[in-house]
Amino acid sequence: MGSRASTLLREEEIEEIKKETGFSHSQITRLYSRFTSLDKGENGTLSREDFQRIPELAINPLGDRIINAFFPEGEDQVNFRGFMRTLAHFRPIEDNEKNKNPTASEPLNSRSNKLLFAFRLYDLDRDDKISRDELLQVLRMMVGVNISDEQLGSIADRTIQEADTNGDSCISFQEFIKASLVEKLCETCF
Amino acid sequence: MPPKRKNHLVIDIENVGMDVDADFDSESEDATRRRSRNRKAKPQRKARQVSDEEEEDEDEDKSPKRRGQRRRTKSRGDEDEDEDNGQQSVANKRSKASRRRGAKNSRKEQSDEEDESDKESKQKRGRAVSKKSKEEQNNEKKEKDKGKNGDNKNNKKKKAEKNSSPVSSDDSDEESEEMSEGELEALKEQVEEKKKLIATIRNKPWRMQKRLSVLKEAQDFVERFEGALGKGKGRRLYAFKVMMTKKLIKFNRDFENFKTACIPWEMKIKEVESHFGSSVASYFIFLRWMYGLNLILFGFMFGLVVMPEVLMGLPYGSIPRKTVPRSDQATEMDLSVLLDFGGYCQYSVLFYGYYNSDRTIGVLKFRLPLSYLLTSVGIFGYSLLVVIRMMARNADVGGDGGDDADFTFSWKMFTSWDYLIGNPETADNKYASITTSFKESIVDEQENQKDENIHLRRFCRVSANVLILCSLGGSGYLIYYVVKRSQDFAKMDPSSLSWFEKNEVEFVMSLLGLVCPPLFESIAELEDYHPRIALKWQLGRIFALFLGNLYTFLFALFDEVNGKLEEELSIKNSSEWALSQYYANYSAFYNTTVVPPPNVSPADVIRGPCWETAVGQEFVKLTVSDVEVTFLTILIGDFVRAFIVRFLNYCWCWDLEAGFPSYGEFDISGNVLGLVFNQGMIWMGAFYAPGLIGINVLRLLTSMYFQCWAVMACNVPHERVFKASKSNNFYMGLLLLVLFLSILPVIYTIMTMPPSFDCGPFSGQQKMYDVVMETINQDLPAFMGTIFSYASNPGLIMPAVLLMVLAIYYLNTVSKAYQQANADLKKKMKTARDDEKNRRNNKDSTNQMMKDLEELLPNKSLLPPPFEEDTPSETVSVKNSKQTKTKPGPTGKGVNVEKEVSLAAPNPRRPVTQAPVQRAGPPMNARGAHAEPGRGRGRGGPPRR
Known about the structure:
Shape of chain A: globular
Radius of gyration of chain B: 42 Å
Keywords (chain A): Calcium, Cell membrane, Cytoplasm, Lipoprotein, Membrane, Metal-binding, Myristate, Nucleus, Phosphoprotein, Protein transport, Repeat, Transport
Protein name (chain A): Calcineurin like EF-hand protein 1
Main location (chain A): membrane
Strand order of the largest sheet of chain A: 1-2
Family (chain A): Belongs to the calcineurin regulatory subunit family. CHP subfamily.
Distance between the termini of chain B: 22 Å
Largest sheet of chain A: 2 strands, antiparallel
Strand order of the largest sheet of chain B: 1-2
Number of helices of chain B: 38
Strand content of chain A: under 5%
Helix content of chain A: 55-70%
Subcellular location (chain A): Cell membrane; Cytoplasm; Nucleus
Oligomer: heterodimer
Helix content of chain B: over 70%
């Protein structure tokens, strides 16, 4: 672990990140080198443009949404801590980790936090509800101009109709989870 | 690391009858870590230390007292072992399931713990201090109890024993760095105890939640340290095992990837699928499957029949059947003759006639005639087996293609993108496929919501069927007429016939194949079925058309064969007569009985027409012409058309792309049926022309590439892209039918027709299957012959058939029952879901009339009208509190989903049948008015949290 990246990263910082996110030491150093290689401005933070250089995100229709998830509300830069905090959502769930210390705050990679992360991808205005307009926007990202607006509208309506259980024409986080998406999402996204 | 200590505590406390919460172990753990940190520096021993010392802090003060007990503990441990032997197996089984994961975790945690221990050392206070951080109320009590337990441990022998073991291990640790005997013993004992606990957990009078947590920890412990037991070697072995499991997982994953990469044309098909939808892709998958099947059949035929004859049989030109006759030798290599599979081809290994009738060939004594017959029959058997197995396997994939899931759109919406895609080209395909799948769903949805004039629809469908029946009858008659005419032509001198007259049958059949499918398709427009169902109808109709073709073709063939048989008989007689003349003359002339065989060149020998080869030729010709027609159709119908439309569009008076000719759509039904019937030809013809399968393999190979290219280059996606049924069992069903139909004529010829006397492997036999009889009689031991003669006895066959029929009937009934049960369950699930949904939707009174009615109820009427809005929320909150009272959740996390349902249950209203858009107004209002129930719902929370 005497790599170049780890020299830039102070030990205490690693400890803190480790505590917060649950990544191991080597994972953190590896991610840090990745972080620095992405950081073209070399100012210790990543901008949206930096993320867009990742090919997987550039071609992903929801790439913008994922990139957004890295940035706290109203900010344009993300430092390594924030970067790691977001990445921690993608850490696989470990079973005994949960009951090891139930009183502590839930780890970032818990199932519900993962789901919340996925939910946020669709919840553009962060009001904890996916509205029809938000669905339409996402649909537009995913299918481009190949399907008419009218049909997209009906798709969005149908989606809401399927998932909405309390009749407010929006998909709340609870409904999002209930919509049998749990298993499917977990296998596709994480 | 969840320690063993906790369990003891738990047990103790249980004994005292206290309620224990799951998390008080963390303190002891903390303390343990701190301690271990202080004492030892060797990280690799961490695991053991943790386990050992978890327990020590409690016992520290008492340790001197208990050292004396150490010896007793050991003996005790042995006893325990004996006791546990029976239970161990259970425990092992359980722990094995999660061993892999546990192993991984343990490593990670060990390192984690090390790092965290600094922090934890700050909390180096008595247990009581940290206890306070717990929110549970009974923690205090617990602690007291613990102390109590510690004091009067003499009462509890069991506990004392347990406690003693860690102490002893501590001592030994201090004595030496190596893993000592006692320590090992202790560890072993702990593992045993855990195992015991796992085995007996059922009997403990605890709450389920706690039992689960205890069980999990015990299992983890056992997993982690079972392998570490034993000395250094054992530990290394354990580490090695863990590493190997990791490697194995990685290897398995790589291997899966490799396997996927090895599936031929997978990328091509996926590409087509993403642009044209699963229906078109289903054709290509079917084509690929066919290719695989044919490859195997080709392997059989080539390996067991063709290769032996080529390698070990007599060479070309050695005997008459392997020589082109003198009269044909002038034109034997002419291209026109070869294209008709005459001349040299006719006397090659491709056809039946080439094979010699020697019982055995070569040094291996290979029984070629027997092999020929068995392989031909075996091909049918294998094909039947494979097709039926495929159908059965597809059946449990299930579904007629429509998604029966309730969240079709939600799933598509939220989960369709594959986040692992990193290749722009793949991303393009994924875009296309997402779009396509949405379109497919839209079509399905439209179909579900369609409701029109049912009478008009019925009329249209009936008239469409009448029209199609008429055209089918017409084409049938046309074929019949043409075949009859061709038989007349056959009797005339071939040189006086024009080209058209010679090829009339093929021409008419190809024409019908070209004209009828589009005709049917346009008639089917009348019916207005869902495209998936329409495709099935279309397939069925074209199948009927082709069936007519096939059977007229076969009858024509049989006429021809009968003619050939007569001709053959006369030739046979004349040649026998000539031979006997020769012998008589020779013996008379030289006055000797030793007559050498006539010295005639094989090319000059008089020979019969060899009807089998003629039939084989017909099949090969048909197959080849079929290929030509298919490829030409694609070239002209798709490629040239697309070319013209694309490039003439610049200088044309109307828009070619959007207007009349446009681009072609991929004709699924025609292509599938073409494939199926072609396969039928192969099955039938393989007996008469062993080389036919090889030709077919080539054809499938080229058509795979050619059609993939053509569909991507020249076709446009269907206007109504529809989702193909997941199981292409319909194709398979057609294939099975064709297979069955093609078995009939072949078996008929094998069992009843006399083989040609001078060509093919069965020449000289009365019937073809005599080869089998001959083998049984001559080469197998005598009792086998008797067994076979018994087995072929009608008295045995009839009951066997009866038995099979009964078995089929039974299995059929059983499967029906299962289907019924399945459907019932599905229905139940759906109603349960709908129920829940409706209840939730109607929790707040959205229906004004119901609200009014409710006000009339006696208990509600007491409330003043202005508060009407608040009544539901009040009742809800009351119920809410009541429920929390009746079942006080120790976790205090509020009501979960089940409770919520019951909360809504007493208030059932009219089920919602409207679309959400229309519903959008009132619920919003209702929700706005009653913040309380909304929050209650929110608190319901995800069940998993």
